[in-house]
Amino acid sequence: MPLRPGYNIVTDPVAETDSSLAALEFFRQVANDGDVQTPVTVTGLEDLLYNAVEDERSDVVARLRQVLRNSESLGSMDAVQFLVDGQLVDDVEFRVRIERAEGGVYLDIGQLFVEAPQQLSPTHAVARK
């Protein structure tokens, strides 16, 4: 299954991309309306969110959502592949379950996007730009 236009959240790479960025660098470039070469693979999103102070994670997600929403770096037909080390969970809300020393932790990655990601397979979901 190829990458679709928009934000692809995957646990296994769907496609090889010529460009790869760490999540923090990706969001910095997008926030500054930098030139993001797409399709791009973004790694470490789960670590970025997990390492935020637990009480502030929802604020961090909200700020990152605004960065994506206000960006002129990405067009509607661009494809971003967020490669996460975890399990996609689409029950009441779209989340990613990651394993840490204290056990499973759920991250509300679905809140990053204007529309909830649509799960295409157990390892691939897509949110439109």
Outline the structure in words:
Residues 4-128 form the DUF8076 domain. This is DUF8076 domain-containing protein. It contains 3 helices and 9 strands. It is an alpha/beta fold and 129 residues long. Strand 8 and strand 9 form a beta hairpin. The mean pLDDT is 93. Strands 2-3-4-1-9-8 form a 6-stranded mixed β-sheet. It has a 3-stranded antiparallel β-sheet with strand order 5-6-7. The protein is 22% helix and 33% strand. It starts with 5 loop residues before the first strand and ends with a strand. The chain has one domain (6-127). It is globular.
Structural class: alpha/beta
Q: Tell me about the biggest sheet?
A: 6 strands, mixed
Number of domains: 1
Sequence of secondary-structure elements? EEHEHHEEEEEE
Radius of gyration of CA atoms, rounded to a whole number: 14 Å
Number of helices: 3
Strand runs, count? 9
Strand percentage: 25-35%
Low-confidence stretches: none
What average pLDDT do the residues reach?
93
Distance between the termini: 19 Å
Strand line-up across the major sheet: 2-3-4-1-9-8
Pfam families: DUF8076
Protein name: DUF8076 domain-containing protein
